[in-house]
Structure formats: structure tokens, C-alpha cells
Amino acid sequence: MTNNKALSGLGLAMRAGKVVSGDEIVLKAVRSSEAQLVIIAKDASANTQKKFRDKCGSYKIPLVIGFNREELGASVGKPERVVLAVTDQGFAKLILKHVGIMSEVEYIE
To answer: InterPro entries annotated for this entry (predicted)?
Structure first.
């Protein structure tokens, strides 16, 4: 299933040390243009979604709003996660390729 491939790609990126999580750390990665892709849980607060939508828009970083916090956490082997950033271009492309096919994910460039 495509959904699993996107989350598997996220897990691979995490094991390679190419994923950062947490509000402030992800914001720092976006500001430094280190982040290649930002993923936000669809059950994140409206305020969190708006903050990252605006920040990623101004820095031209792809943003995916989808999955839920349990799925994101499980994919990276941690407890619930609301926001993640992929810092490697190759992993970001791999995840976006699988996410682009999914209908329940909102994708913003």
C-alpha cells in the first residue's frame, strides 16, 4: 500500500539520521534551509498547521499534512510525533513520490 511506503521511507530516513522532530528543531531546520520536506500530522492543532504552512511557504519547502500523530511516531520509532522534517533530498523525493499518490494527504508546495 502506498501509505505504508511513505511511512517506510520516513523510517529509513530516521535510521539514516536524516529526520528531525519537534516544533523548535523543525523550525530551525526550515529557517536554515536544512529541511527538504516537512510533514505535519493531520490531527495537529490549527495553529501548528498555520505556523508551518506559512514558514514552509516563505522558505519554499514542500509541506505534507497527513497521517496522524501515532502513525508518524510509529514510523520513526518514537512516541507520537506532530511535526517532522526530512533533511536529505533523496529521502524527501522518495517520500513525496509515494505521498503524491495518496488522496487523504494535503500537499502544499
So the answer is: Ribosomal_eL30-like, Ribosomal_eL30-like_sf, Ribosomal_eL8/eL30/eS12/Gad45
Count of structural domains, the chain: 1
Q: Which domain holds residue 100?
A: 2-108
pLDDT tens per residue, range 24-40? 999 999 999 999 999 99
pLDDT for 41-53, tens place per residue? 999 999 999 999 9
SS3 label, residue 48? helix
